[in-house]
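Quick note —
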Amino acid sequence: MFKELEDIIRRNNENPDNEKLEPDEFHKTAQQLMTKQFLFQSHQRSRKAYDLILRFNNYFHNLFESFNHQLVVNENQRYVGIVPKQFYARMKLEETLMLMMLRHVYQEKVNNWEQEDDGSISIALIDFEEAYQQVTGRSLPQKKSDFYDILSVFEERYLIKLTHEEGNPENQLIQIYPSIESICTGNVMEMMAGYINADFQELEDNDDEVVEGEVEES
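Predicted structure written out below.
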């Protein structure tokens, strides 16, 4: 990888029409993407990194592949990102279901032509809670702090942004970015049902084990 980077910088800097590049720019860009997971061209703080990754797509693809991550480049929605393999396996059930529900809401809004210019959609927090309960049959975490802790993780990864309706700060909104499509692929409704059924079956199995233990003791 170091030799590849040296060759890229050398070829670029040999052309007097090109802006000079330094290895540190690539290192900082890779670190920024590892930290944020998704970067948007429309966001001022990530624009330079986005442009560098887009320009040297092959290098960054090979770099993150060596770390078992897939590089995602979406020029239509103007974002780049990385997706670790077996993403769901590293998450708690509540986090997984909430992420999938965000993806489901995003797709519903897109189908209804409710996207903003940057590809994002927005939903009122109270409407998201109602939709979550209706689809999953579960309530959101009872403690608001737990709920916001989960959302803050998604926000740090540029999957969503917590905001409020213009002129009405009491009406909290979840702005969902198109990067959610790169995290949740396939039939989200079927996957949510699978996770819910698996969790329900595990609870039933645990109940059976308790009953059997009580019988043996008597």
